[in-house]
């Protein structure tokens, strides 16, 4: 998993402006999604976070659902019944297609 830090996104501001409000766990999930070069599965997000944080798998799934509902993260069909998550288009990230073979 290649990491690509977004130098333009203020994840705290994105959370606040969405009306969600800041929590450390929301921030960390959004940061993992936004700082990767491609969409990630919920499992990949959980594994990345659990390396340095004590976070529950169910918490990650719930946060992803909220971030999708608020339009901060996109849920992308990854083939079959699986989904991956990527940062939703915003002023620093224009919309772009995702292809899976």
Please describe what this structure looks like:
The chain has a single domain, classed as Winged helix-like DNA-binding domain superfamily/Winged helix DNA-binding domain (Arc Repressor Mutant, subunit A, Orthogonal Bundle), CATH 1.10.10. 40% of the residues lie in helices and 13% in strands. The protein is built from 4 helices and 2 strands. The protein has helices at residues 11-17, 24-34, 42-50, 57-69; strands spanning 73-79, 82-87. Strand 1 and strand 2 (82-87) form a beta hairpin. Residues 1-5 have low confidence and may be disordered.
Short recap of the structure:
This protein has 101 residues and is α+β, with helices and mostly antiparallel strands. It has one domain: Arc Repressor Mutant, subunit A (Orthogonal Bundle), CATH 1.10.10. The chain has helices spanning 11-17, 24-34, 42-50, 57-69, and strands at 73-79, 82-87.
